[in-house]
Amino acid sequence: xxxxxxxxxxxxxxxxxxxxxxxxxxxxxxxxxxxxxxxxxxxxxxxxxxxxxxxxxxxxxxxxxxxxxxxxxxxxxxxxxxxxxxxxxx
Length: 90
Prior knowledge:
Blueprint: H1 7-20, H2 27-34, H3 38-50, E1 54-59, E2 62-67, H4 69-87
Antiparallel strand pairs: 1-2
Helix pairs in contact: 1-4
């Protein structure tokens, strides 16, 4: 049985998808890859924008999301925490 993702894991997953797409991804592909409902996804994106983890860039008529330094820092710290938890079998 698969456990539900927690809030911190969902945030990590969204940031990781952006990072793995050369730090530049449009709204719809990010929504699809996040595996969330549109409503939940919109809430997370709004929070990440508000807290400065991601920013929205516009190039001609296209809008993209990319990570800020704070977003990269979250990815790094999240990996450290999960590694710590795994090391102790928690």
